[in-house]
Structures are given as structure tokens and as C-alpha cells.
Specification:
The structure holds 2 protein chains of 2 kinds. Chain A is of the alpha+beta class. Chain A has one domain: Sufe protein. Chain: A (Alpha-Beta Complex), CATH 3.90.1010. Helices cover about 40% and strands about 20% of the residues of chain A. Chain A contains 5 helices and 4 strands. In chain A, strands 3-2-1-4 form a 4-stranded mixed beta sheet, covered by helices on one side. In chain B, strands 4-10-9-8-7-5-6 form a 7-stranded mixed beta sheet, sandwiched between helices. A 4-stranded antiparallel beta sheet of chain B has the order 13-14-17-16, covered by helices on one side. In chain B, strands 1-2 form a two-stranded antiparallel ribbon. In chain B, β1 and β2 form a beta hairpin. Chain B starts with a helix and ends with a helix. Chain B folds into 2 domains: about 140 residues, Aspartate Aminotransferase, domain 1 (Alpha-Beta Complex); about 260 residues, Aspartate Aminotransferase, domain 2. In chain B, α4 crosses α11, α12 packs parallel to α15 and α13 packs across α15. Classes of the chains: A alpha+beta, B alpha/beta.
Chain lengths: ~150, ~425
């Protein structure tokens, strides 16, 4: 049986109640809107990228505990990373939350973000955890002005 | 219904939920190691064994295509399907079985009216009137037909309690209003709308009235000749029948005037490359081989309901709703969305500092199934300034224990988040 304590860890609850970098950034040069139509979660991500390095990351929006904590911790982890490193983080995060239960995905670069590993046991909540990351991909690669959707 | 009547009903044992529950095999199952508490009936209901067996029997003993075979099996299948139609017609007190068109569900029923009646009758400048508490399925088809015809979609606002503002409704009705399409019971707020009055006003105004009965017919009588609505749409799967089957009731004279919705087999009388003559009502609206097993299953679900003491079941449900609401109100930080005087079926709520999605996950671990999200009512969510709600929705087979389990589990949600 999956355990709620794996999903709602203290650090996740803390970030959901007191999200870090929860602000609009007027000077951001990359922004994207992420939307999960299933639950109505919506977020705007603000990135400042200088010489290929993320110097500031912040977000605004409304969502559940998992999506808010995920966005909060993602913005913390991005500062100082190159765009390539941010891409790699996205890949590892996605692998961690979507890998089959009998596999042990590589999470070495993820550090604190490993608290989201428990999401894997709750398939209905994977989209909540990955919304911020999909929005990040859209912000970095800027393919479209349309909101990025988890659907 | 007074309290003493309710107690009397309960004491006479007119409705014994424990006996009724035994008819629904799925209610016996365990989820995450706990007995299932199913409180998502507004999304879909569970099926009695008799429905499951009827579908099984059809495929095991009677499967054949209908309305065209000369062989014995086809005659059996046709008879079973048409008997189901007649049973549905009797259950909703339609004037005749031809007034029952079998569709895929409420959504298709409403689309049928929007595109068949709407395409023929709506003109530039006409108005279609809906309410702010409609499900997307009673919004989007009208938007689509309005875009094609130049008609205008207008919306009756709702109060903070979740009731249709009747004086606004009266003001919105005008000579351009061709049709009013409103839900009987809100799937989010549980509001029972004063539809008798609303239908009468529409008719006095010369407008037709489509009633969305998806959330009402599982909880109360749907008497077509008493309600006098022009169209009534509902889904089989919310009425303890199979998915993929539903009904559009329409007054015969209206249906007779309408053009077919889809073309194909079964809906024609004769076809040449020059000219096709359509079949009569209801068949002209039922192109192609229908969901025969579904129709038979829905007929069986209605047969089950006919055997229930519906009046006692309704009282039981009303008691449950009040009991559930009183339990939720005792939990600090819980707020009920939708406080209409007349309610049925659904209790939507929010909990301070906890997103409905998180409530849903924690309850699921306790074996409790509720719905969280916008419930296909995004404009209504916007009206109340909320992204989503948690919703517990009832059927007659729910018990007070189900609601006790809900309240207890909400305590656990609080413990995790506070």
C-alpha cells in the first residue's frame, strides 16, 4: 500500500504552505504559463537567464500542495544552473516521478528534489508534481505563447 | 417532509439501506485495504446485480442486430430493446414511447437538440438562455450552434447561495428567447432549481425549455407530463445503468418537425441517390446500430428502481444530505459551497489551506471516493472565485456510516495539513 507520508513529507508541506520565490519578476526575460486543465492548477514561471545561466526564478499561481511545493523547490534549485543543467534536472525529475515501480531511476543530480519520489506511487498526482517542470521547459525553449498543458 | 414523518418512515423499515446495498456487488469491495466508501455518485453510479446480469444475458443468449433481421434472435433483441424504451417512457411518464430517443448520454442528447432543432430554428439575433450553473455539456453545444446561426447565448446569474436569480431570469426572457436550457439539479452545488415555475414562464414567453436531468433523475421523480418541459436529457450510467447510453425525451410534435441529427442506417425509410426519405420518430434520430446491451441494461436499471420504495429512498437521501452537511459544518475550516434551500445529491466543500486535490488523495487512501476539481463547470467556479471544490455525492445506497467515514477522514486531512 502506498503511504501518504511518502507523498506529504514535511518539506513538501512546508513549501506548499510557504512557497519560496512566490512573486512576479518584472525583469524576467523568459516566462511561461502552465495549466493543468484537470484540476485547474495554473502557474506563471518567471526566469531571468543571463549568458545561459539562470540568475533568478520565481512563480505565481494557484495549485494543490504538490504542485505548489514542486514549483517552489524547482525555483530554488534552478538558480545558478545553466540552461543545459536545467534541462537535465527536468529529465531526471520526470524519470523519477514516472519510472515504473520496479526500476530505480537515476536521481543523483536532484538533491532535495528527491522528496518527490513518493509521487510515483500516486499516478493521479504525477501531473501535479511535473506541472512546474513542463512550464520550465516551455520557458527555456519558448516554442509557443500558448499555455503549456499537462494534458 | 417533517422530521416526525422521516422518523416514522425509518421506523417502519420502509427503506433498509443494508438490504439495498447487497444488490450492488461493487459496494462490497475493499480499496487500499479499507472498505470502499463510494461518494462519487454524481460522476457515475454503481450498478445492481440485475443490470449486470441483464447485459450478460443479452450477450450470452440474445445478441443480434435489431430492427432489420427476420430471424428469431433479431426479433428477440428488437423486442428487448423496444421494451426498454417503453419502460423508460413509462418511468418518466412520457405520452408515448416514441418520445424517448436513445442516445449515448446527456451530452449527446443536448447536442442533438442544439444541432437538430437549433440549426433549423435559430436565426441571427435569436437568443438561447442558459444558467451560470450549467455543466459544460449544456454550455458548449449552444455556443457551437450560436456561432453557426448568429444566435446569442445569454446566462441567468446565480446567487451566493447557489440559487438561480429568478428576477434576473424574468428580465432575460424576451421575444428573442427561442429556448431556455437549464439543469434540474446542479452537479456542483446540489441546488434543485424551481423548474416548474421556470418552464411555465418560458412557455408564457413563447420559448421552448430543455431540462438537463442528468443529476435529478437519480434522486427524484422525473414526470414529463407534469413538468411539461419540451426536452429532457439524462444519462443511463448515473441512473444505475450502463455507460454509453442515455435518453433524450422530446414532445412528439417537436421531434416530428425536427430534422435528423446524424445520417446512416436505421434512420431512413428509403434511400436513392436522388432522394432519401427519413424514418419516423424516434428512429430518424437513431442512426446506426445502437448500444443494444446498454439500452437493455438501462431498462433493467429502471425495473430495479420501480421495485424500490422510491419515496422512502428519497427521504433517506434527503436525511443523508442533511446529516452529511451537519457533519461537515462541525469540522473547523470546512465551508460548504452551495447552500440553496432545496438541495439534492451533492455536497461541495472547501477546507481552509488545503487544495481539494490533496483532500481527494488523502480520502482515497482511506478507501473513500469523492470527486475533486471543477466538475466540468469552469464558469461556475469562476462565479464563486474558486479553482475547484471537493464534492461528496450520494445515492440511495449510501449510509450514515459512509458520511461518518468521510468526516473522520477529513479530520486526518486536517492533521496532515495543520
Amino acid at each position: 500500500m502506498s503511504d501518504l507520508r511518502d507523498l506529504y513529507q514535511e518539506v513538501i508541506l512546508d513549501h506548499s504552505k510557504n512557497p519560496r520565490n512566490f512573486r512576479k519578476c518584472e525583469t524576467a526575460n523568459r516566462t511561461a504559463v502552465g495549466y493543468n486543465p484537470l484540476c485547474g492548477d495554473k502557474m506563471t514561471l518567471f526566469l531571468t537567464v543571463e549568458n545561459g545561466i539562470v540568475t533568478d526564478a520565481s512563480f505565481q499561481g494557484s495549485g494543490c500542495a504538490i504542485s505548489t511545493a514542486s514549483a517552489s523547490m524547482m525555483t530554488e534549485s534552478l538558480k545558478g544552473k545553466t540552461e543545459k543543467e536545467a534541462d537535465e534536472l527536468f529529465q531526471q525529475f520526470q524519470n523519477m516521478v514516472t519510472a515504473p515501480m520496479d526500476q530505480e531511476p537515476d536521481t543523483e543530480a536532484l538533491g532535495k528534489l528527491r522528496v518527490f519520489a513518493g509521487v510515483r506511487e500516486f499516478p493521479a498526482r504525477v501531473k501535479c508534481a511535473s506541472l512546474a517542470w513542463h512550464t520550465l521547459e516551455a520557458a527555456i525553449h519558448g516554442e509557443s505563447d500558448e499555455p503549456v498543458s499537462t494534458e | 417532509m417533517t422530521t416526525s414523518q422521516i422518523i416514522k418512515q425509518n421506523q417502519t423499515g420502509a427503506f433498509d439501506v443494508e438490504i439495498v446495498r447487497k444488490d450492488f456487488p461493487l459496494l462490497k469491495r475493499m480499496v487500499h485495504g479499507k472498505p470502499l466508501v463510494y461518494l462519487d455518485n454524481a460522476a457515475t453510479s454503481q450498478k445492481p446485480l440485475s443490470v449486470i446480469e441483464a447485459i450478460d444475458r443479452y450477450y450470452s443468449e440474445e445478441n443480434a442486430n435489431i430492427h432489420r433481421g427476420v430471424h428469431w434472435l433479431s426479433e428477440r433483441a428488437t423486442e428487448a430493446y423496444e421494451n426498454a424504451r417503453a419502460r423508460i417512457a413509462r418511468y418518466i411518464n412520457a405520452a408515448k414511447p416514441q418520445e424517448v430517443i436513445i442516445t449515448r448520454g446527456t451530452t449527446e442528447s443536448i447536442n442533438l437538440v442544439a444541432f437538430s432543432w437549433g440549426w433549423k430554428n435559430l436565426r441571427d439575433g435569436d437568443e438561447v438562455l442558459i444558467s451560470a450553473m450549467e455543466h459544460h455539456s449544456n454550455i458548449v453545444p449552444w455556443q457551437m450552434i450560436c456561432a453557426r446561426t448568429g444566435a446569442k447565448l445569454r446566462v441567468i446569474p446565480v446567487s451566493d447561495n447557489g440559487e438561480i436569480l429568478l428576477y434576473e431570469y424574468r428580465n432575460l426572457l424576451n421575444p428573442k428567447t427561442r429556448i431556455v436550457a437549464v439543469t434540474h439539479v446542479s452537479n456542483v452545488l446540489g441546488t434543485v432549481n424551481p423548474v416548474s415555475e421556470m418552464i411555465q414562464w418560458a412557455h408564457e414567453n413563447g420559448s421552448l425549455f430543455l431540462l438537463d436531468g442528468a443529476q435529478s433523475i437519480p434522486h427524484m421523480d422525473a414526470n414529463m407530463r407534469e413538468l411539461d418541459c419540451d426536452f429532457f436529457a439524462f444519462s443511463g450510467h448515473k441512473l444505475f445503468g450502463p455507460t454509453g447510453i442515455g435518453v433524450l425525451y422530446g414532445k412528439f410534435a417537436l421531434l416530428d418537425e425536427m430534422d435528423p441529427y446524424q445520417g446512416g442506417g436505421d434512420m431512413i425509410r428509403s434511400v436513392t441517390f436522388e432522394k432519401t426519405i427519413y424514418n419516423s420518430v424516434p428512429h430518424k434520430f437513431e442512426a446506426g446500430t445502437p448500444h443494444i446491451a446498454g439500452g437493455i441494461g438501462l431498462g433493467e436499471a429502471i425495473a430495479y428502481l420501480e421495485k424500490l420504495n422510491r419515496h422512502a429512498a428519497e427521504i433517506h437521501e434527503t436525511n443523508l444530505l442533511h446529516y452529511g452537511e451537519s457533519l461537515l459544518r462541525q469540522i473547523p475550516g470546512v465551508r460548504i459551497i452551495g447552500n440553496a434551500k432545496e438541495k439534492a445529491g451533492a455536497i461541495s466543500f472547501l477546507m481552509d489551506g488545503v487544495h481539494p486535490h490533496d483532500i481527494g488523495t488523502i480520502l482515497d487512501q482511506e478507501g473513500i471516493a469523492i470527486r475533486t476539481g471543477h466538475h466540468c463547470c469552469q464558469p461556475l467556479m469562476e462565479r464563486f472565485g474558486i479553482p475547484a471544490t471537493a464534492r461528496a455525492s450520494l445515492a440511495f445506497y449510501n449510509s450514515r456510516e459512509d458520511l461518518d467515514a468521510l468526516a473522520e477522514a477529513l479530520g486526518k486531512v486536517r492533521d496532515i495539513f495543520h
